[in-house]
Amino acid sequence: MSEYMYALAKFDIQQEILERRRINRCEHRPFNLDDYTNEKCESNFRFNKTQLRTIIHAMELPSHFVFHADDPKHHFQVSTEEVMAICLRRLAYPAHLEDLGHIFCRTTSTLSIIFNSMIEYLFYKYKSTLNFAKSQFTRDRLQLFADAIARKGSPISNVVGFIDGTVRGICRPVVNQEVVYNGHK
Asked: In 3D, which of 91, 114, 120, 90 has the Cα closest to residue 103?
């Protein structure tokens, strides 16, 4: 590893340590949905306070969740409103775990445990109701999608949908390179 790469890696580690210290120093008040206006709640979580509480009630979620970290001695309890707020904020674009750390005053590892556990919980609770609509993706329907997109000006004739904004790497396109370039370095 070159000296430059070593220094860069060391700098990144130091920045991560400083960030973790900042988050740990952050005054962690329990999450309270009432601290948010309806507008701020919709902006952050895509739902207002009443809608969020209705969703929690309709999904028959418990009042809190207990999460277990890798170390069996470390577990923590989080209110369902905070868990749902973390999940909804993470699912709203753009939202990285680092961004959530600033909002919820929790480390990225704690937020990751909360988010992943909740998504898994919801999947197992509702997996019997999740059906892939195969009727939407027949050969004829896919051709309709491709034709509609082509009519709007796509230079590629067989596009049937779009990725949600996530950057996906592709290998050096030769034809229509400018179409797939999103401006990111």
From this structure: 90
Angle between the 108-126 and 80-91 helix axes, to the nearest 10 degrees? 100
Q: How far apart are CA 136 and CA 13, in angstroms?
A: 47
Number of residues written out for the chain: 185
pTM for this model (two decimals): 0.60
Query: Which residue in this structure is represented by tokens 């120093």?
Result: 25
Amino acid, single-letter form, for residue 184: H
Helices 80-91 and 49-58: crossing angle, nearest 10°? Answer: 110
pLDDT means per 10 residues in the chain (185 residues)? Answer: 59 59 58 90 91 92 86 82 94 81 85 92 87 78 90 86 66 68 64
Q: Give residue 25's identity as a one-letter amino acid code.
A: R
